[in-house]
Amino acid sequence: MIFFLLLEQANASEFPQHFLGASLQKQNKFYMALSRQRLIVEAQSSMQTIMDNLQSYRIKFPLNCEGFKYRLGDFRVRVGKVVQINFGNLRGIVMEMEYLPISSWKTSHLIMSEFFEILKETLGKKSLPGHFVHVEPNFSEFGLSDQYTSRHTVVQYASILAQMTTMAQ
To answer: How far apart are CA 68 and CA 77, in angstroms?
Structure first.
């Protein structure tokens, strides 16, 4: 389960007005993505409770991503649905793919780009509702290195969920 909260500041001041809070599966960490400031902050999972108690931010758009993980040769594929927690509304389907032998974003990007073009073309031939969105955030804008980490995952999900919340409003 991946749990995301789009948080909005309760009282206007010099602090960031919006950010995404994320808890990733099997990690005792809480990540905060401040997109406008291009910053990813990593904290212990108790940070979410602290922020709730401070009441300086309120949850604007709680989402939950759950699904399944598959291993296909050298690839790890995660497919899941994104559901708005309070209403159970399906917001989208997310597919995350990882090429396990390579942890370098730049090196694996060439292989992944080809795969996503084939996938997009294949899905385009089907009469499925919705549309395929390939998100490629600029990790260097967030000060992230070429070696893929959990922070990279949070940046990707922040980009995807920002699109989903924009379309939902």
So the answer is: 8
Nearest 5 degrees, angle CA 140-CA 144-CA 145? 95
CA dihedral of residues 96, 164, 92, 77 (deg, nearest 10): 0
Range of the domain at 21: 2-168
3-state secondary structure of 88: coil
In single-letter form, the type of residue at position 161 comes to L
The total number of structural domains in the chain stands at 1
What is the value of pTM for the model shown? 0.75
Give Cβ neighbours of residue 119 (< 8 Å, ≥ 6 apart).
132
Q: Are 79 and 95 in contact (CB under 8 A)?
A: yes
The first and second tokens of residue 4, run together, are 């995301």
pLDDT digits (tens, 9 = 90+) for 118-133: 877 887 787 767 777 7
DSSP string, 4-29: EEEEEESS-SSS-SEEEEEE-TT-SE
Reported as a single tens digit per residue, the pLDDT across 85-112 is 777 778 888 888 888 888 888 888 877 8
